[in-house]
Amino acid sequence: MNDTPHRRFGFDTVFDDRGGSYTPPKVKKNFTLEEVEAAKAQAYQDGERSAVARAEQEAAQALGEVAHAVQQAFETLTHVAHEHREGSAMLALACGRKIADAALIHFPEAPVTAALEALAREVEAQPRIFVRVSPELEERTQQALEHVAVQIGFQGQIVARADGAMAPAAFTFDWGEGRAAFDPEGAAQRVAEALEAAIAAEGLHAEPLFT
Fold it and tell me: Which long-range contacts (CB under 8 A, 24 or more apart) does 79-86 make?
């Protein structure tokens, strides 16, 4: 009979899947003051790194929100700037129209004399030019054109004729081989249409507000 005393099972043996066993390392229960301080320092560093990472993440998120807000603000400013350009252009057109109307009231013969000067080379060999104007400007236009003809050296005859269908400052030139005409209302309408087309073509693709 074996007198070797039996040792109690200490629950410190671990069996694996193959039927073997091993003893895991014992967990240390007592720590020195230095070990406790080192553990505290490590825990503090880990917590600090976690807080820094969280702060960096929150800062990145905040910067993203700021960038989005700035982008929306730029888009709004672009729309406002476009509307401002359009309003300024239309205001300038209206002012120009007022100035032009006032100038034509005081100098209604100015467009027809400017036309003769511009056509000087084209009509220099023509024997005669017929000009149709509004009845109230017939005599005034005749005198103004004769004065310009002397200045540009035109040797032909200029005949101004009254036409009740012509608006003030409007005229037609007819020299046989060609014809020219001017209508203040039509010209103003074409300018307005060209400006509106330019604004529409520009749209929101004008030069950026910020670079």
Answer: 79/204, 81/206, 81/209, 82/202, 82/203, 82/204, 82/206, 85/199, 85/202, 85/206, 86/199
